[in-house]
């Protein structure tokens, strides 16, 4: 559940595919991907499981 006042961020399909492919092909960490693409660590984890 979202916290009160929290905004949902929708990432483009291109950004999601880039994140997932870097994780799978190059074995980058979730923290690295989060910093590189400007998202939270939990968002990068969630995108990898979609």
Brief descriptors of the model:
mainly alpha
Q: What's the helix and strand layout?
A:
Elements: H1 13-26, H2 30-37, H3 41-49
Structure description:
- The protein is mainly α and 50 residues long.
- It has one domain.
- It is 62% helix and 0% strand.
- It contains three helices and no strands.
- Helix 2 (30-37) crosses helix 3 (41-49).
- The two termini are 18 Å apart.
Largest sheet entry: none
Rg from C-alpha positions?
A: 11 Å
End-to-end CA span: 18 Å
- The total of helices stands at 3
Oligomeric status of the shown chains?
A: single chain
Provide a short characterization of the protein structure.
By secondary structure, the protein is mainly α.
